[in-house]
Amino acid sequence: MNAEIIPYTDESAWLANRAQDITSTESPSLFGFGRETAFELACRKDGKTAGAFKPNERTEIGKEIEAAIAARTARMYGVVIRHKKEYIRLPDLRMGSSFDYEIVGVSDGVIDDQVLRVAFGTMGPGLFEIKNVDSWIFKNEWIAGDNGYEAPAHIEIQLQHQLEVCGYAWGCIVAFVGGNHIEIIVRPRDTAVGEALRRKICLLWQNLLDGIYPPVQLPEDLDVLKQIYGYAEPGRLLDARGRDDIHDALVDYIDAQRDEKGAKDRKDTAQGKLLRLIGDAEKVTTDIATI
Fold first, then answer.
1. Are 186 and 170 in contact (CB under 8 A)?
2. Which of 60, 78, 79, 142 is the most interior residue, by most CB within 10 Å?
């Protein structure tokens, strides 16, 4: 299947290109590992919702220092990198990807580890995916094993998606941990994962043509449902008497609303008692917490 390579021109064109495909940051959702559910992704791609990932301070800072992380890592590991700014897509599948960097050669200088030079010498150019990782998140979400670290599933899937689109035989995840430590994870292209990605993406697009959506996940998809059903037709009345499904959902909602109020009342009461008991102390240590 021929790939279409689209040179980078500006941000708006880049976003427009991504909108027509399932990209490497989106495909993990099809396996249950994304930052949105499969239902949310499907509704957004089908134009039912306008929701999209909004950059936050952390992602913006990560983007700004990405070049410095890449340059530092390349010097440490003795490789030459190139900013891979083009967007590549497989038009028949509507599967696409943008990238961080690629390894295009080796360099002289201080080399801490030969792993990237060996991979390049064996398999040719490879992808260079940068992740700026908080040290607490790295400790709790990245898995240490006998052969190095395993990244969270959405990152591993993201890299395999990128490899499937560009056709490279390998890539590496560069984790810049806590602002002062680099971990390298080398991954060969996994053709079985690539085939699974193709099947999932193809099925999603076909299902959308047929009006079929992934199952709703609650409470995760509540905001999506609010967008879809946010309009009420003036004057339209639904007689739900005898509808057990609506009755049961309404009972659950009323009970939860009552529990929510009760929990807030208990919290406020406990806080008031604590304030009276603590008095003017700035800090209080207890057996279960520090206040």
1. yes
2. 79
Sort 106 into a burial class: Cβ within 10 Å, 0-12 / 13-18 / 19+.
Answer: middle
CA–CA distances in Å: residue 251 to residues 195, 239, 240, 244, 265? 45, 17, 13, 10, 21
CB 189 within 8 A of CB 112: no
Segment holding 104, helix H or strand E? strand 101-106
What confidence tier does 279 reach under pLDDT thresholds 50, 70, 90? confident
CB 55 within 8 A of CB 88: no
| Average pLDDT value for the chain | 91
Sign of the alpha-carbon dihedral angle for 43, 49, 55, 56: negative
Residue 74 CA to residue 71 CA, distance in Å, equals 5
Single-letter amino acid code for the residue at 84: K
* % of the chain beyond a pLDDT of 70: 97
* Tokens 């980078």 belong to residue: 8
Token reading at 283:
């800090």
Q: ∠190-138-32 over CA atoms, to 5°?
A: 50
Q: What is the DSSP letter of 215?
A: P
